[in-house]
Write a structure and sequence with these properties.
The protein is elongated. It contains two helices and five strands, in the order αβββαββ. A hairpin with a 3-residue loop joins strand 2 and strand 3. Helix 1 crosses helix 2. It is an alpha+beta fold.
Length: 180
């Protein structure tokens, strides 16, 4: 009888250690899952920052190309930076996809129709379309606004860090200075 009781106690002791080990594995698995999710989110933010950076370079190149190919163009809005587009809209702003080079022949005026053959990039999924702005006082700027108020905070923070000195936050927008 003693042997049976002792065996029963040992089985209980072993079972408690097995359950303890399973509990530790569950905690470790949950921690790993959270860490993996955080890494995936951080990678998505970095991928978006890289995409915005590449798009910004394409747009800058198109703007500079506009002024280089059509140096005698004149936007006619104010007396500065004549060969660069200046939309005749409120605040001299327009979607980058509809901006036209002054002095370009009809049919090739849009930045997307430039002879470089590169289309105007479509903004990342979390952002509204790129906005081109050209004012007399602030120069040529590109604006990127999140689709959701207060959205894309991590992306905005990294962009401001990466483009320190040439980008500022205006509310939720990131505003990149192209030409002063």
């Amino acid at each position: 009888m003693r042997l049976g009781k002792h065996l029963h106690q040992q089985c209980g002791f072993v079972a408690s250690y097995v359950l303890y080990g399973i509990g530790l594995l569950a905690i470790a698995g949950a921690a790993y899952g959270k860490l993996n999710a955080n890494n995936r989110q951080a990678q998505q933010v970095q991928d978006t920052v890289e995409e915005v950076s590449a798009q910004l370079e394409v747009l800058k190149g198109k703007i500079m190309l506009c002024g280089a190919i059509y140096p005698d163009g004149d936007h006619g809005q104010f007396n500065t930076r004549h060969p660069y587009p200046a939309p005749a809209t409120a605040g001299n702003q327009a979607a980058a996809s509809v901006v036209e080079c002054p002095g370009a022949p009809p049919g090739s005026r849009l930045l997307g129709n430039m002879p470089d053959g590169v289309p105007v990039p479509v903004s990342p999924a979390d952002f509204s379309p790129w906005i081109y702005e050209h004012t007399q006082t602030d120069g040529v700027r590109l604006r990127l606004d999140p689709r959701v108020d207060g959205g894309a905070v991590a992306v905005r923070t990294r962009l401001l860090r990466r483009f320190q000195g040439s980008a500022v936050a205006v509310g939720d927008e990131v505003v990149f200075t192209i030409l002063q």
